[in-house]
Amino acid sequence: MKFQNPIIPGFYPDPSICKANGKYYMVCSSFQYFPGVPLFESEDLINWTQIGHVLTRESQLPLDGAGNAGGIYAPTIRYNNGRFYMVTTNVTGGGNFYVYTDDIYGEWSERIFVEQGGIDPSLYFEDGKTYFMSNGEADNGEQGITQCEIDIETGKKLMPSVCVYKGAGGRYIESPHLYKFGDTYYIMVAEGGTEYGHMVVYAKGDSPYGPFTNYPQNPVLTNRNLGGYVIQGCGHADIVQDDNDNYWMVHLGFRQIDRWMPFHITGREVYLVPMTFDEKGWFTAGVKGITPVEIETNRISDSVIQKRKLTETFENTKVGTDWVFIRNPHMENYDCKEDSFVLTQTSYGLGEEKESPTAISIRQREMRGDVSCRVECADGEAGISLYMNESHHYDLCLRKKGEAYQVVKRSCIGWVECEQNVVTLEGDGDVMLKIRLENKDYFFSAKQGAREYELGKLETRYLSSEVACGFTGVMISLYTYGTEGEQAKFTDFNIVYEE
Fold first, then answer.
1. pLDDT of 279-294, one tens digit each?
2. Exactly one of 120, 174, 238, 381 is catalytic; which is it?
3. For this structure, is 103 an active site residue?
4. Domain boundaries along the sequence of the chain
5. Is residue 335 flagged as an active site residue?
6. From CA 63, how far away is CA 432, in angstroms rounded?
7. Sheet order of strands, 143-150 included
8. Which CATH class is domain 311-497?
9. Does domain 2-296 bear CATH number 2.115.10.20?
10. What is the arrangement of strands in the sheet containing 36-42, beginning at the earlier edge strand?
11. Among 85, 259, 275, 433, which residue carries the largest CB count within 10 Å?
12. Is pTM beyond 0.85 here?
């Protein structure tokens, strides 16, 4: 069969995968968004369903003051003795911790902290022992991939943290995972930075502490030398074995808005490539070490059909799964029904850096499509924002100005805020807002009754990670702010993506 990459499009970075009870499970980073750590399930590695989030309570996920480079980094999911574990870092509050559950569809435990620094933690279980690994500083001050043994019941260290691996020579070593295939231990990391030089490297050894010998052909996977190729930034990988003893690698990557324009807006996404071992125990990954858009394989049955979700509405999406919030939300400001969202205004706007504005967000998953939503408000402002972060977003909104209503197209680029188009409406505060998604441009319009207003375009690249910085992707956010306690109503929400 043939499948297309990415297998999970949109802002779902740092994938980690495990297999349990005949199914596959995956988690991804969530940064400043709540709930945190999206959780996916699959039966075939190709089609994934989000079944919820791991961190669903504020006690598990405090996000006060978390910007788009804060919050939750790089989770790892593992399954051991009937229990799922997810280990991660909250860089804004608490450091490295893990949670667990015996029911993958239920709630997860409160946080158990580990007194080892660094980020991108991982767990490895063997013979009743639990190895905890992160990239950072060992107890003796040595920098690199650091490891200790812990008591999995309490998180307490059972030995000093020691540096076990320093990588293959690239910058920004991260994303460590430890495996045992046959009698050999493998350590796999990412290097080059989670950008255009990103790559996957690995080494093997005879014990969990090494010494580890680097794969002679490192990097084992990278798209860094493919100029004019849409998929870039391949790295931060994890490995899973299927029921037929085939090995697969999931990793992050991103799609440029154009093959010759080095900007990406949908964030870092999830990609899948096959792995193959040779007679000496070394493995290769991808198609000649790269990740292509299309992969043909006989490892997956031809009966498996890859499905794409190209339409999103209030009816076929779920709050707390598809829809998320900026930092810890004030839930009394949200009344979300099957066919409408009613949001209550506060004085916090989208430029708020620490508090949680009244905004509910869903990921932009593809480059081309149409977004529309009917918006009603009696006062203040309400609309749709293409939100990258607090200082980079494009807003299309309905606003009460004196006794009249206006439709406003506004850009905020690096704290430079500009209203390019303002149209005064006739009648009440009820309008259909529309945004056309194109690779290089967003096009804005509005409709009131039979009258349509074209409000022009804005370039997508100013919302890209290359311009806005941070580690997230563009979110399609429904928001309101203004008069404390006033409400805005959103109906007829629709996203239709093009294949």
1. 999 999 999 999 999 9
2. 174
3. no
4. 2-296, 311-497
5. no
6. 33
7. 119-126, 129-137, 143-150, 162-165
8. mainly beta
9. yes
10. 16-20, 23-27, 36-42, 49-55
11. 433
12. yes
